[in-house]
């Protein structure tokens, strides 16, 4: 697979994954095509050497793995971790707002959203519904309106002359999107309209047995498709690059792991809820990954021995040095787009990188002729974190934090280098034991 083929697949994946639920479904589609077998957490597992498997939790997190010829206790696991969620606007449980003849939907801010970028965009809705069928059984289904159905209009400059000087956003007041002309408040017909819209969309998608929608987890997203940008198409612009780009690169590496070292036990984990702290049953601080690995190993001693021989690469985007704001970076640690993946370091363990894991990653980059960069936050600024330190502390596994440099992280539309995701995938393939001969 060359760079153009990789990027075309990446952009198709980004466009097909407007919510964590859809992201996991997109991963499953590709894993199924590659011969991976679905496992059920509630059932016993019959695992075989050379087998390829995946298991999901909450429909929004997934662990996929390939068992090599090597015993897991003696060879450990080579693991890549990313997250499926992105900052967004999530619909409230009772969202209907009818005022001044407009129907709006109340939203909660999920994660560290760059709010100003959500105004004047063509928005759609996607997520999961939980419903009763005619027999009274509970089901889940994915819903995606897939076309523009809402907008958050800006207030005209004539009504806010200070907008270009100091624009702040009140999430409660300013963010409810307009979806259509509303009901007449005097009619008394109000409440439940949103679930009616969801039920109609479910029918459009062929989900015909929806008797009653019990609840939903729906979020707005930008309808604009991902694109190659620049005179020479140097960049990829898209929603949810943080962190579906890493999920795709990890999946690509895992699906090629069977072409490499037969002894490697390869694992990919893509967890939900990273943007809000990872504290959930499906998040990195929950028991999902550890539970899967323990079941593979058989008992506690085997698990502990395997972890001592394992390594995790935590992959999450890094901040590229912005040419308009270079003062926001340490002068010696400002990653540049299209100059290779970034090793992220923090003395206070906001990243899990240490000299050993950094050395291993640098060696892998050299092996596949990929440049590598370093990121350290300015000493007078706070530092974000990733699933890396969480996974390292939960499993006791040596870990490194890496990612591709990006601009506009947590914007409704982010920007990455067109060379970097492909370069990252080459390194992850090497980590899994397979070297991509394409250039």
Topology record:
Blueprint: H1 3-15, H2 20-33, E1 37-38, E2 52-57, E3 61-66, H3 72-75, E4 78-83, E5 88-99, E6 102-110, E7 123-132, E8 138-144, H4 171-174, E9 178-181, H5 193-204, E10 212-222, E11 227-229, E12 235-238, H6 241-255, E13 266-271, H7 288-297, H8 300-308, E14 311-315, E15 318-319, E16 342-344, H9 355-367, E17 373-375, H10 387-395, E18 398-403, E19 405-407, E20 414-417, H11 420-431
Helix pairs in contact: 6-11, 7-8, 9-11
Principal-axis shape: globular
Pairing-aware structural class of the strands and helices?
A: alpha/beta
Full CATH superfamily name of the largest domain:
Zn peptidases
- The Cα radius of gyration reads 23 Å
Strand order, sheet with most strands: 1-2-3-13-4-14-18-16-17
CATH class of the largest domain reads Alpha Beta
Helix content: 25-40%
Instruction: Give the N-terminus to C-terminus distance in angstroms.
Output: 9 Å
What is the tally of beta strands?
Answer: 20
β-strand percent reads 25-35%
Please provide a written account of the structure.
Helix 6 crosses helix 11 and helix 9 (355-367) packs across helix 11 (420-431). The mean pLDDT is 94. Helix content is 26%, strand content 26%. It has a nine-stranded mixed beta sheet with strand order 1-2-3-13-4-14-18-16-17, sandwiched between helices. Strands 8-7-10-5-6-9 form a six-stranded antiparallel beta sheet. It has two domains: 3-86 and 239-431, 3-Layer(aba) Sandwich (Aminopeptidase); 88-222, Aminopeptidase i, Domain 2 (Roll). It has helices at residues 3-15, 20-33, 72-75, 171-174, 193-204, 241-255, 288-297, 300-308, 355-367, 387-395, 420-431, and strands at 37-38, 52-57, 61-66, 78-83, 88-99, 102-110, 123-132, 138-144, 178-181, 212-222, 227-229, 235-238, 266-271, 311-315, 318-319, 342-344, 373-375, 398-403, 405-407, 414-417. The protein has eleven helices and 20 strands. With 439 residues, the protein is of the alpha/beta class.
């Amino acid at each position: 697979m060359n760079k153009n083929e990789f990027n075309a697949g990446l952009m198709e994946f980004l466009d097909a994954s407007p919510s964590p639920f859809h992201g996991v479904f997109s991963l499953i589609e590709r894993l199924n095509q590659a011969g991976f077998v679905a496992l059920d957490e509630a059932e016993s597992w019959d695992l075989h050497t050379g087998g390829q498997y995946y298991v999901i939790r909450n429909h929004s997190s997934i662990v996929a793995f390939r068992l090599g010829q090597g015993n897991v206790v003696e060879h450990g696991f080579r693991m890549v971790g990313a997250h499926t969620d992105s900052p967004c606007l999530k619909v409230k449980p009772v969202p209907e707002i009818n005022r001044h003849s407009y129907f709006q939907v109340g939203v909660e801010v999920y994660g560290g959203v760059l709010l100003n970028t959500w105004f004047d965009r063509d928005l759609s809705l996607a997520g999961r519904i939980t419903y009763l069928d005619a027999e009274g059984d509970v089901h889940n289904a994915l819903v995606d309106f897939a076309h523009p159905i809402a907008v958050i209009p800006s207030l005209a400059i004539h009504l806010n002359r200070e907008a270009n000087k100091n624009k702040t956003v009140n999430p409660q007041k300013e963010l409810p999107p307009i979806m259509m002309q509303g009901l007449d408040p005097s009619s008394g017909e109000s409440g439940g309209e949103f679930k009616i819209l969801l039920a109609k969309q479910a029918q459009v998608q062929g989900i015909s047995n929806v008797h009653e929608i019990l609840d939903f987890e729906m979020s707005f997203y930008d309808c604009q498709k991902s694109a190659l940008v620049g005179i020479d198409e140097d960049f990829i612009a898209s929603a949810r690059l943080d962190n579906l780009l890493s999920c795709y690169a990890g999946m690509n590496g895992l699906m090629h792991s069977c072409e490499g070292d037969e002894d490697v036990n390869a694992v990919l984990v893509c967890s939900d809820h990273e943007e809000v702290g990872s504290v959930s049953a499906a998040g990195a601080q929950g028991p999902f990954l550890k539970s899967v690995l323990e079941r593979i190993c058989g008992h506690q001693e085997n698990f502990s021995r395997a972890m001592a021989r394992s390594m995790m690469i935590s992959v999450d985007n890094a901040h590229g040095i912005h040419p308009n704001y270079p003062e926001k970076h340490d002068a010696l640690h400002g990653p540049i787009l299209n100059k290779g993946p970034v090793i992220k370091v923090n003395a206070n363990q906001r990243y899990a990188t240490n000299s050993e894991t950094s050395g291993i990653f640098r060696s892998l980059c050299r092996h596949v002729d990929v440049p590598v960069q370093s990121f350290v936050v300015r000493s007078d600024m706070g530092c974000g974190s990733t699933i890396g330190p969480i996974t390292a502390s939960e499993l006791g596994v040596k870990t490194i934090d890496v990612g591709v440099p990006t601009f506009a992280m947590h914007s409704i539309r982010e920007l990455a280098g067109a060379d970097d995701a492909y370069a990252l995938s080459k390194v992850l393939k090497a980590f899994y034991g397979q070297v991509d001969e394409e250039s």
